[in-house]
Amino acid sequence: MGCLGQFASDIYTPAVPHIAHYLATSSNAVQWTMAAYLFAMSISILFYGPLSDGIGRKKALYVGIIIMIIGSITCALSTSITMLMIGRVIQGLGTGATGSLWRSIFRDRCSGAEMSKLVSYLGIIVTFIIAVAPIFGGYLDTYISWHAIFWFLSAYSLLVLLATKFLYQETSTTHHITHLKPTFIWQSYRTLLLSKSFMGFALCSFITYGTFFSWFVMSPIILIQHAGLSSIQYGWLDFAAGGVPVMICAYLNGKLVGKIGSKPLLRMGWAITIFSGILMVIGNILFGVHAWNILLPAILFYFGINFIWPNAFAGAFEHCGKIAGFAGSLYAFIQLLGGAIFGGIVTHLPDHNQMALGIVFIVLPAIAWGWYEIGINSKANSLR
């Protein structure tokens, strides 16, 4: 459940050039389907949180997963970029349920340092599955077709639906139909929007996820079209950059957060991501476009962001237990909106080499770090 939204976002990145050729459109147009998916997902998330606080997590998940299946089938049958765009939007409207409610389910069961620790350990599993997505997509694209990627997503969504039906037991103990009243919804979201702590951490996540998604938008074009990698090679490179380093980082974060706290780990994460951008810029200046001098900074980048996410998540949700569904929706909306906005922006940046991507890795984490130090760490804020 926790992987579905990101898996659907990443699995077809190696197929972008082939999709563009098949649909007789540009790579930039196909890249826009990534941003459209995230935008639809971020908007729908605001709906599923209140719905789950009204009718329960399980029923809300049913609605979203069924919509996801419909969107995946639409993408698989696409014969034009317009149809693919529509299918991706429908997918996003569905995965908003899984994208937000796994957070709410976590908050139903734990909080504080325990949450940060367990989210880190969950991240080991989630990251492995997500990291495999481009590899799997590359093989499907190469040996079957890019359509097979979306048929696979249809099957994966069906599996999640069955798992939700038979394996997941409702975790919400406070949901009630009165929570769907407009006044309750407004007051819940207003409480969160006025919380400087919640909004501060959420905006840090907004910027950090925008940086992360910029990699997925730009890296296929740089590495496949300009560095000469195949779809399969790209998938394995992304796994090498993200899979193992992230699992190691998630394990370390789970061990360290109880000993040194989340603040040093957040700072360490931003410092590492900024350094990865510096290395990427220097590598481009000295050596040009080569897979290895993009891979090494990407490893550091993946390592850094996984010190940021679990600790920002735990900080934002510390005081949101009674409205966890709303908090999960708003937090995920803000985070994914960062991916949609920055993902759309970077489609207009030069992608013939890694220079622009390296600058993104420097600038955006620096802004997030500055926001944390000025807007959050300098004040003792709590949910009002």
What does this structure look like?
With 384 residues, the protein is mainly alpha-helical. The protein has one domain: MFS general substrate transporter like domains (Growth Hormone, Chain: A, Up-down Bundle), CATH 1.20.1250.20. The chain contains 14 helices and no strands. Helix 4 packs antiparallel against helix 7. It starts with a helix and ends in an 8-residue tail after the last helix.
Any key phrases for this structure?
14 helices, 82% helix, Growth Hormone, Chain: A, disordered C terminus, mainly alpha, 384 residues
How many β-strand stretches? 0
Nearest-integer average pLDDT: 86
Strand content: under 5%
Sequence of secondary-structure elements: HHHHHHHHHHHHHH
How large is the count of helical segments?
A: 14
Give the count of structural domains: 1
Q: Please state the overall shape, judged from the principal axes of the Cα atoms.
A: globular
Report the radius of gyration as a whole number of Å: 20 Å
* Biggest sheet details: none
Q: Which regions are unreliable across 5 or more consecutive residues at pLDDT < 50?
A: 380-384
CATH topology: Growth Hormone, Chain: A
Structural class of the secondary elements? Answer: mainly alpha
By CATH reckoning, the class would read: Mainly Alpha
Distance between the termini: 31 Å
